[in-house]
Structure formats: C-alpha cells, structure tokens
Design brief:
160 residues, mainly alpha, two-stranded antiparallel ribbon, 6 helices, 2 strands, rod-shaped
Amino acid sequence: MNQDETADDRSVAATNPEGVESPRRPTEIAISIEALDDRQARAAELLVGGMPPGQVAGTIGISREQLWRWRTKNAAFKEHVHRLRMELHAARVERMWTLVDKAIGVVDEALGEGDPVVAMQVLKLPGLHLGDAELPEPLYGSTSTGIESSADHRSEDAPA
C-alpha cells in the first residue's frame, strides 16, 4: 500500500454469507461517510463546488490518481459527493422558488397600481388561454414579448 492509499479507499460494500458483495444499508453508509478524513471531505466539497479534479488534488495535496480512486472505488466518498450534490440542488431549487415568489409579488403590486403595461404582459404569458379574444394594443410604447396572439395569425381576407 503506497502513501496515498488508505483503508478508506475500500468500498463500503458488505459481503453476505454466500460471499457475494452487496450494498450496505443506508444507515451503514451514513456511518461510513462520517469516517471520511478531512482531505476526503474537503475534496468532495471542492468537486461539488465545480473545481476541476486536477486542481482539487493539488489543493488538498494528493495525486490525481488518488482522487480518481476515491471518486470511483470509495463508496463512502461517492455517497458523500452525491449527498452534497443533492443538498446543493435542493438549495438552488428553494432559491429559485423564493425568486419566483418575489417576482409574483412585484407583478401583483404593479397590477394593484393599475399598470397597463404589466397587465398586458400578464395577459400575453405563454399558456394563458384566452380563446379567440383579441387583446387591445398597448396604451403606450411597445410591450412585445415575442408572443403573438391568435389574431396575429388570421389572414386579412379571412372572416373574423
């Protein structure tokens, strides 16, 4: 075993009585994640944060090969990276919904103040079905959203 190889490089798979390797239960994996050393935990954070693997290896003072072994053969490390990615994704989704709520609040406030431009923009939203109703032209300025009403597709000689 060379200097970069540690006992932590072993998979967290268990061997059943028949000698066949099987994955451990989630509680066993959670315990194994806690067993990661500081370098492995930091490497996982840097990888999930978007740092290239070669730079991660240099930053924490290991070889690229060692990092590759952790990423491909160490189930506890792989599970920790996966968990960090899921946490990051959940945080991003939550942040997006917070922004959507704020945007809806701004639109609601503008509509409450009677802003005709915002009202027209809302009426032109994709997916808002108004049947064959024609939308009036904006009172001032262009509010084009790039979305055409059904009236825009009618031929001039076709009956309305």
